[in-house]
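Help wanted!
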Amino acid sequence: MTALLVALHLAALLGLPFLLVGIVNRTKALWAGRKGPRLLQAFSDFRRLLRKRPVYSEVTTAIFRVGPLVVLASTIVSALLAPVLGRFAPISFHYDFVAVAYLWGLGRMAMMLGALDTGSSFEGMGASREATYSALVEPALFLALGTLAAATGHATFAELVGAGARGAAPAIVPLACAVALFVVLQVEAARVPVDDPTTHLELTMIHEVMILDHSGPELAALQYASALKMTICAGIVAAVLNPLSAADGPLLVAAVNVALVLGVAVAVGFVESLVARLRLAAVPTYVFVAVVSGLVALLATAGWQGGAR
Amino acid sequence: MILLVAAAVVLLAGAGLALVLRDNVHRGWSSIAAQAVASVLVLAAVVPTLVRGGDLRYRIAWSYPVESIALHLDPLGAFFLAWSLPMTLLGTVYALGYLRPYFRTRNSGVQFALLDVIALSFLMVYTVESAFAFLLGWEIAAVSAWLLVVWDYRNQKIRFAGFNYLVSTHIGLFFLLAAFTLLYSQTGSMDFQSFAAFLQRPSRLRSIAYVLLVTSFGLKSAFFPFHTWLPRAHSAAPAHVSALMSGVIHKAGLFGLLRFTLLLGEPEAWMGWALIGFSALSAVVGVLYTTAQRDLKRLLGYSSTENVGIAGMGFGIGTLGLAWHQPALVALGFTGGILHVLNHALFKCLLFYAAGAVYRSTHCVDLERLGGLARRLPWTAGFFLLGALAISALPPFNGFVSELLVYAGLFDPSVPAGIPRAVLVAVAAVLAFVGGVSALAMTRAFGVTFLGSPRDARIHCEGEVSPLLRIPMAVHAAGVVLLGLVPAVGLAIVDGPARLFRARVPAAAPDAVLEPARALAPIGGIALLLLAVVGALLLVRRRLAAGAPARRHVTWGCGYTAPTARIQYTGASFSAQFADLFYAVLTADRRERLPEGPFPEKVGQLSVHHVDAVEKRMFEVMGEGEALVNQLAARLPRAPGVSIGAGLVALSVMVALLLAGAGGAR
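Answered by r_m:
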């Protein structure tokens, strides 16, 4: 059974990222009355980029070339620790969610250094914004996951989010955590209203402007890593909302979770269609919503456990 | 124990030799030789204690008023000695390369002798058991550190920084004296063992003594808000002195904290909470300051305040564990905290050495004027990058290992459910914020200094630094990598001191003491897996590139065809948005003269400095604002007014506390 789940997990990591990007884009297209690109267009782009010959800026050093690979490697390792299928992760140990967060940190730093390596003021701008918003969103991630750890008494990522909605905790706890984690997704995966992945105006972008100078296989690595990160985040949100319990069998849990992940992608597309990107000065306020949401969950847990004692 | 005394004699001889020899190079080597011999002797003495545990005691008869010096080597002191002396040795090797340009004009003997004396002071502070000798060692360390800082004493600013440090460290000494006087008045002895007999019983006087001790040790280790001396001193001192002060010398404060926590027996829970609060505040404010500094060494100095805060959080969790009788918390908190002390020494010295190499090569540590150094100084850039990743606690390096232990303590299920657990989860969120901000600050420091193109054509880079500077960096870098990839090594090193704390709480469940090992076991695997995946991706990338070589072209300027190096993102612009959010702490001192009209005749100018809010407020409270700093610096040699004022404040606080305490005792 474990071998099967590992195989499914790996398959999800390979297939889901491109599909999720396709679903978000399709949702936006339908909402705007367009037909939209094929669902697996992102995969075609990926293959095309792999064949391309890269162009490097004369200013750059080895950091620019190795950076994207570090980004992808750290995201892949974190994906092996994260319960994309609900209650299961191939590698699982106590406080592995801390490792996931810090692996993302490593990838982020590699990407920001790659951006600064070009000496372009636009890319510096993107790196600065990425650093600022990710530092602000970090407490929200830890509040949500720490609250779930406290509420469930579990210490591994798979168990603490996997027990989310079915745990003994009052419903407000997983709900508030899911809200916080959804905002974390929007920041980490560079989605509207924090960032706009489609604009071509460098002044307003965050993620896209950091990878302006990357091309060919490096760009492919960065785009896959970014889609993979969105899959992980969507998987966590889905796992927290997953209504099934452990008794229902891991395969059923996984199936429902994948369906929920697709649902999260549709939700991301809805938000992108209905809301404009926030002014950059307003982003910290939006991120603060996630922190407050995490705090609400934490206080609800404290009240519940303190009262039950 | 005889080995330690021999080491002290060797160090004194080395210091003496460094003063009398005729040539600066010989002076340096005599100091290095003495420290090398002393390090070997000390390691021979402390390694058995670290591995097997147990205590060594020795008593040296001395003249009045010390009478006798009781030496006591336990695993805690052994741990601090085991890395303090070798690191000071590396610092001295670095100094030999760093100070070489001055050798023809300056006598460097005093500097080298003082480095020996610093090593000697470690021997005293970490082994003595009587308060008198402890204070002597403390004072030797403080005064030698001051003399080391003012190496370039002809510069007024550096004299002021040194003076500021001297005053601050003595304010700390007052608190320590107050605590010892209080303990002496209650026990009639200056011996730590008799202090322990008093400190084991909860009383109001014990609480006062604890607060005094934490204040003094906090000042020594530059906890917020006692850090104001630190950024000035670190930017003023030569690089090896900054490195040793931040990484090694001021760890004595944390040692004191641990030593007295051991003497306390069973602390009360509020002590743990106070320590956690104090440390979390330090970590947050320290890391906020690092984001906006434009002086590379000042930036690194502030990050010391952050890192002692992280170690202090670990100690606070351990103290709570002692108070609540939770062996898992004790094990996780103290192991994590003590390991972070060692890790911080490793990567902070590395970063300061790399910053020193930048200075040696360009004569500049101003971020806004540097840039593109990675191609001119590849070794230095590599070492700085390694240190930057490690200090941001990113895997697969050592900072992540100790922070993970602190996180494990904060999330541990043995914390009572309800408010205490919620508070600790919130503290974990604060620690996560500190990690994110630290990554911002270090990306900025590395990216602006080493990447992109040079920003100022007037800065001339002399090329890679001498091997004497690179060897100490390489040794520290090896430590950073080793402790990150094989966490079991770090765990084994800190096991000795951590065992002392674990022994305070009898473990009901025998596997609770294995908690740190269990938390860390998979981390080495994850680190290796990460490296393996990066390696595999590199291979794939190489196969993809086999067909066509990459092209070189200019950076895409978004259609703008006349870019210059001046329009690159600068350090100030990188942190501007973040600094605006935290303006309460990051007080900007903005001076501008904007050009007027459509055809301005006068050249405009703008300069922004982020000054220390605590210091600024302190001087504002005293009535005259930031100008007072400059004014004070100008008349420094004649009227050291601030020391008298600060001394009076400290004295009155002390007297008030003693009176309150005496009232309580009656």
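OP: Thanks! One thing I noticed: Chain A has one domain: 2-304.
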